[in-house]
Give the backbone structure.
Amino acid sequence: MRVRLQKEKEHIDLLANAAGHFKTITRHRHMVMRHCFRAGIGFQGLFHDLSKYMPSEFVYGVLNYQGTRSPNEGERDRYGFSHAWMHHKGRNKHHFEYWTDYDPKTRLMTPVKMPLNYVKEMFCDRVAAGKIYNGVNYTDSDPLEYFMRAKGVRAIHPDTSRLIERLLRMLAEKGEDYTFAYIRRLKRY
């Protein structure tokens, strides 16, 4: 009887996790879409993070769902890396990790400068993630603080890093309306 009850509890937990994960990624995706429209890249925003609904990402998200942080973090705690993130970063160009390639001179993996439209989407993604995970405690400085925690250790092209940091600082200092208006006018970097 005890084994049966344990299996039923695990089944209920998985259903609750699936519902919670689905709700979280959908809320995030819709918020990113709204931000992309404000940033002038609305059509691009319509396709944001669709890979999160694929079984290769969704299943790991359900198994590692916590509700307070990315399930990828829980999966890293468990396995030392994230299956879902490995899949996700290779399919979503708004992540700087996507933009690496072999340098023909050094024969090493090297960060590549991101196209501007994907930097804009990355900004929208970071702001939405901060809002989703911080909830009512969110402030416009949260995305910058999150970015700065790993500033010296991430493999990102220097120009891309400078631009995203500048946009996140602008958000923290001048707010969303000013920053999204600036991003809409931004044509190159």
In short: The longest strand covers residues 100-102. Residues 2-49+92-185 form one domain. The mean pLDDT is 93.
